[in-house]
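Shipment paperwork, digital attachment
Item: protein structure file
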Amino acid sequence: MDLLLNKLLGLLEEETGFYRSLLSVLQKEKKAVVDSKLDELNEAGKEKESLLLKIRILEEERLRIQERLADSLGYEPQGLTLTKLSQLVGEPYSTRLKVCYSNLLTLIPGIREINHSNKSLLTHSLELVRGSLALLNNFVASNAVYYRTGKMQSGDQSGNVLSGEV
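Attachment content:
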């Protein structure tokens, strides 16, 4: 059981480090969006994907270890939380589990908040780009000069930025 607990704690500590790195990458991503630096945004996206893959791999391993611990303690894997596990094991594991839990608990809201902020910034940027494209499309849209009857069209003209009338 000590071996499983040490392995679990190692995974949790490594996962916590990855979440800290993810928070840093999300902050870089936000700065890249605000500064309109596409290269930095792409780089942050690659870093984020890599970190999320590493976190997913660690999380799968953590779940396997948690199942083995739950079996050895006589609990259902879903019911064996870090808090519950820290109550069932002795020192130094109990304290280390509480520290890991506390560290993860403080990181997750910050990650959610900055991720939501980045999503809003990117959505706004996308709306600005769409508006610019619509404006440009209106400038270059071709209006027919003549109707089918052969009469000239005297409607509004596209492509004019300024009106000649005062």
